[in-house]
Amino acid sequence: MAIEIEHKFLLANDDWRQWVSSSVTYKQGYLSSQATSSIRVRISNDKAWLNIKSATIGTQRHEYEYEIPLADANEILDTLCNKPLIEKTRHFVNNNGNTWEIDEFYGDNQGLIVAEIELSATAQVFEKPDWIGAEVTHDRRYYNNNLAVQPYSAWSTD
Amino acid sequence: MAIEIEHKFLLANDDWRQWVSSSVTYKQGYLSSQATSSIRVRISNDKAWLNIKSATIGTQRHEYEYEIPLADANEILDTLCNKPLIEKTRHFVNNNGNTWEIDEFYGDNQGLIVAEIELSATAQVFEKPDWIGAEVTHDRRYYNNNLAVQPYSAWSTD
């Protein structure tokens, strides 16, 4: 079990793209997403994982992750997970000793880009690069489990 | 992935106890139990498993099972699973080439005993011993995920 402390931001502009050190593509879905926990199946680079997260909204939550067979993951995504599935590329950007993970979404969430930073302690200070925009850590709409139910393309534009 | 074909019965009397070949104790809970699937954590003999079942009511459903660390399972049962947890002893009884699994419940489901037989094909014929009572395969109340929400002790006695 690990405790995650995450901060989530929108992007102010595209300047981050020049600093990308690596990228990885994810296809994932949620078996369940309820008051106490969410359960995710994720495929990346022909490997698959089952992930359980406690659903504490905010900066801290518990997480458990187990590798599962790729064939099982494909079946579970197709037959048991909520739709739409989440498809995204995660770009890694190093900035002053911190690693930013920038998720660029496709499919029903096309157009959405979100940057996350994971800290080892709630009090840890970090620098916000100029390309970081508004913080959305506490906005449930940006949680991937919610994007699998109410995707970005379905949000009202008012 | 395996397809399960199960039939579930109440017990007519206690005669089955003389034929028990082995017994095992389970402590389990549900992370989720919804329209499409249920997700169970089970501890038995100091080992733990995460199990995903499609929620088809009736005799057939898909099932996936993965071993997970015992310490994780204890944490997940304590902090993330629905309460009450399910505690039961499963007794195995061989009868005319078939194995019956007889679940004797404790805790909030004390007093409930249910017999299950698992078949390899829907058309497979099986003999019902005299100690087998009414069939409850299609009665959702007897599903373990429902016993974790509406336990036997809370059922109306009318």
TrEMBL record, chains A, B:
InterPro entries referenced in this protein's UniProt entry, alphabetically: CYTH-like_dom_sf, CYTH_domain, NeuTTM/CthTTM-like
Pfam families recorded: CYTH
Gene3D superfamilies named in the record: Hypothetical Protein Pfu-838710-001
Domain CYTH residues, every copy: 2-149
Catalytic residues, chain numbering: 30
The protein, known as: Adenylate cyclase
